[in-house]
Specification:
The chain is an alpha+beta fold. The protein contains 7 helices and 6 strands. The protein is globular and about 50 Å long.
């Protein structure tokens, strides 16, 4: 099968090489950024390209920008976890998807609630949160919370106690 002048085998090899190269990068956001900068950057991506969604079983957060720029999705994965899918081709549009589900989504909710700016996406988040409230309540009762927190490196700077000085 010939797609855009590239045979299927060569296209698959190129895609695999690109995926391997992207997976070996540890961080897209370089210093002097602080964790609050990383979260603010991710909130901008969620406002611009995100969708609070879900299937019949569980809620999810999906960000699906154009496939030519995967680095923002790597930043989302480095901050919140989740999985990267794609690239997918829809007609002439190629997209990659970052999907956040399960315990990682549940752990990210306090950060999203605090840092998501006032926007149409914020309104969508509030409606989505109400829709899936029973699911999150059930998850809190069923799943034990003895695993280490994924977001421990952000927690102290994003949620300072009253005795901590504010983050500047």
């Amino acid at each position: 099968m010939l797609i855009l002048g590239v045979t299927r085998g060569r296209r698959d090899a190129w895609r695999d090489a690109l995926r391997d190269a992207l997976m070996h990068r540890l961080s897209v956001v370089e210093p002097p950024y602080t964790p609050t900068h990383e979260i603010a950057y991710c909130m901008g991506l969620i406002v611009g390209e995100g969708c609070f969604s879900g299937d019949l079983e569980q809620p999810c957060l999906v960000v699906a920008p154009h496939a030519s720029d995967p680095q923002p999705l790597l930043a989302l994965r480095n901050v919140f976890g989740g999985i990267l899918n794609g690239p997918y081709v829809y007609g002439i549009r190629q997209v990659r998807r970052w999907v956040l589900r399960g315990f990682e989504l549940e752990e990210a909710l306090p950060y999203i609630e605090r840092w998501l700016p006032a926007s149409r996406k914020r309104e969508q988040f509030e409606v989505w949160r109400v829709k899936w409230a029973a699911y999150f309540e059930h998850q809190r009762k069923v799943i034990p919370r003895d695993r280490p927190r994924f977001h421990a490196r952000f927690h102290d700077q994003c949620f300072p106690t009253n005795s901590d000085p504010p983050v500047t």
